[in-house]
Write a structure and sequence with these properties.
single chain, alpha+beta, 6 helices, 8-stranded mixed beta sheet, globular, 181 residues
């Protein structure tokens, strides 16, 4: 993945040496369940996930510049709908001790700029489980438009009710003070 930078963060590809940082937040019971996966039980499990991130190359490590530490991740995942349409969906997690400082909003806004300005995507979707207010607030601060309620298959907990949002390239441009294209 292309390395992206914001004021306080470097968004970059994961590396093998990120295993300890990944495990530090992935083992927390306040992180994974909000994203639909069980907390990591061992660093070995984190290493396996890390290898998948490296192979798939669709998840950025969020490195906090001032600490040179990975504190979370943001993914921009290509998905195929039931109608055969290719869509891009954001997914993200942040280590609990770093919540409440605007890091995830900053990261998502940087990924949106990349998605619309460089990849020229027509739209991006994002979803959160209905009980995940922290994720909802990030989505709202970033300017996504509510689309519908639906069911997402979580990795560890089965189907869960979700709220699905979307932002088109034109909506993004308007929010940035630009003209529709």
């Amino acid at each position: 993945m292309k390395t992206l930078e914001s004021e306080r963060l470097i968004l970059r590809s994961f590396r093998e040496e990120d295993a300890a940082d990944l495990y530090a937040y992935a083992k927390l019971d306040t992180v994974g369940p909000n994203a639909g996966w069980a907390p990591h039980a061992t660093i070995r499990e984190s290493r396996e996930i890390l290898r998948k991130f490296i192979t798939d190359d669709d998840v950025w490590a969020l490195e906090l510049k001032q600490e040179s530490r990975v504190i979370g991740s943001v993914g921009l995942h290509a998905r195929i709908t039931t109608k055969g349409e290719k869509v891009y969906e954001l997914g993200y997690v942040l280590s609990t001790p770093y919540e409440g400082h605007g890091y995830m909003t900053e990261a998502v806004k940087r990924v949106l700029a990349y998605a619309f300005d460089e990849l020229n995507l027509p739209y991006v979707k994002v979803a959160h489980f209905v009980d995940n207010d922290k994720s909802r607030r990030v989505i709202e601060r970033c300017g996504f438009r509510f689309e519908q309620t639906g069911i997402h298959q979580s990795a560890s907990y089965g189907p869960k009710q979700s709220k699905i949002y979307m932002m088109t390239q034109n909506e993004y441009r308007q929010s940035q003070g630009g003209n529709e294209q």
